[in-house]
Design a protein that fits this description.
By secondary structure, the protein is mainly alpha-helical. The protein has one domain. The chain contains twelve helices and two strands, in the order H-H-H-H-E-E-H-H-H-H-H-H-H-H. A two-stranded antiparallel ribbon has the order 1-2. A hairpin with a 2-residue loop joins strand 1 and strand 2. Helix 1 runs antiparallel to helix 8, helix 2 packs parallel to helix 4 and helix 2 crosses helix 8. It is globular. The relative contact order is 0.19.
Length: 306
C-alpha cells in the first residue's frame, strides 16, 4: 500500500461521496418532507448529464452549458411533479414504488429516442483540464478537485438554507407536521413542488458535474440510486447533515475498500486467498456498514428531529 495511491484514492472517495451527497440530499428531502418514495430520482441525475452534453455542444462552452442545464433540470423536475408525482402523494409506498419504477423505464426509453443509445461525451473545460501537484510525485486532476469544492459549497448553502431561512423553516415544519403547516395557511402543495423541483435540480447538478469525466448514457443513474438510498438510511431520513456525512463515509469506504481490502487481508491469510476474498467482499462493505448502523441506530446516524 503506497502513500501516493492512498492519497489519490482518498480524494477519489471524497469526490464519489460528494456526488452521492448531491443525489441523496434531494432524495432525503423528498422522502423526509413528503413521505414519498421516488425511485425515479436517479433519472434526474441522468437528465442533468444529458442536458449538460446538449447545452455544452450548442454553446461550445461548459460553463454556459452548466448555467443553462441547471434551470432546465429544475423545470423538468417541476413538470414531472405536476404531471405525475403529485397524484401519488396520498397513495401507499408500494404504489409509489411501482409508479416511479415505471417513470424510470419511460424516461430511459425517452432518452434513447431523443439522444440515441450511444454514449455521449462532454469535454473537460480547458481551464480546468490540468493537474495539480499535491505532494512529491502525486498529480491530481484539477476538475476532480473542482467537483469536491462545488459539492462542499452546495452542502454549506443547503445547511444555511434549511436551518436559517424562512423556506427552510417551512420545509422542516412540513417534515414534522404537514397538516398543521397547511392549517396555518401555508400552501403545502406549492411547498412540496418547490422541494421536489429543488431535489431534482441537485441530482441534475451531480449529473452535470460528472458528465466530463464519465460517459453520458441511458440508465446511468440507476446504480447510483441504490447507493443514494443507502446514504439516507445510514445518515437518517430527512437529515441533510446525515446525508452529507453518510455520503462521504460511503464514498471513502467503497473506494478505499475496493483498493486496499485485499492488501489488508494479506496480513491474516495467504496472498492468493486474500486477493480472491477481497474482490468478493469489497463491493459488500457499504452494505455491511449499513447493516451495522441499522443494528445500533435504526433511525440512522443523524435522524431529523420530529
Amino acid at each position: 500500500m503506497s502513500t501516493t495511491l492512498l492519497v489519490v484514492q482518498t480524494l477519489n472517495g471524497l469526490q464519489f461521496g460528494i456526488l452521492l451527497f448531491l443525489i441523496a440530499a434531494g432524495l432525503t428531502l423528498v422522502f423526509g418532507v413528503m413521505d414519498f418514495v421516488n425511485l425515479a430520482h436517479g433519472v434526474q441525475y441522468m437528465i442533468g448529464a444529458y442536458l449538460a452534453a446538449t447545452f455544452t455542444a450548442l454553446t461550445g462552452n461548459f460553463l454556459w452549458g452548466l448555467l443553462l442545464a441547471l434551470p432546465t433540470a429544475l423545470v423538468v423536475g417541476i413538470i414531472l411533479e405536476v404531471l405525475v408525482f403529485r397524484h401519488l402523494y396520498e397513495r401507499d409506498h408500494l404504489s409509489q414504488v411501482l409508479a416511479t419504477f415505471g417513470v424510470i423505464l419511460f424516461l430511459n426509453e425517452a432518452v434513447k429516442l431523443i439522444w440515441g443509445a450511444a454514449p455521449l461525451g462532454v469535454p473537460v473545460p480547458e481551464m480546468l483540464s490540468g493537474n495539480v501537484v499535491l505532494m512529491d510525485g502525486v498529480l491530481y486532476p484539477v476538475y476532480r478537485l473542482v467537483i469536491i469544492g462545488a459539492g462542499l459549497a452546495v452542502a454549506l448553502l443547503l445547511y444555511f438554507g434549511v436551518n436559517h431561512t424562512r423556506v427552510g423553516m417551512l420545509v422542516r415544519a412540513g417534515a414534522s407536521n404537514p397538516r398543521m403547516v397547511s392549517a396555518l395557511g401555508v400552501n403545502i402543495g406549492r411547498l412540496f413542488m418547490i422541494v421536489f423541483g429543488f431535489g431534482a435540480m441537485l441530482a441534475g447538478f451531480a449529473g452535470i458535474m460528472v458528465a466530463p469525466i464519465l460517459s453520458v448514457e441511458p440508465g446511468m443513474g440507476d446504480n447510483l440510486l441504490i447507493l443514494a438510498m443507502v446514504v439516507i438510511v445510514i445518515g437518517g431520513i430527512g437529515s441533510i447533515r446525515g446525508a452529507f456525512i453518510a455520503a462521504l463515509l460511503i464514498g471513502l469506504v467503497d473506494t478505499l475498500g475496493r483498493s486496499f481490502f485485499g492488501d489488508l487481508l494479506r496480513l491474516f491469510m495467504p496472498a492468493a486467498t486474500a486477493s480472491q476474498t477481497g474482490r468478493a467482499i469489497a463491493p459488500m462493505l457499504i452494505y455491511i456498514l449499513m447493516a451495522a448502523v441499522l443494528f445500533f441506530r435504526p433511525a440512522g446516524l443523524f435522524p431529523a428531529r420530529r
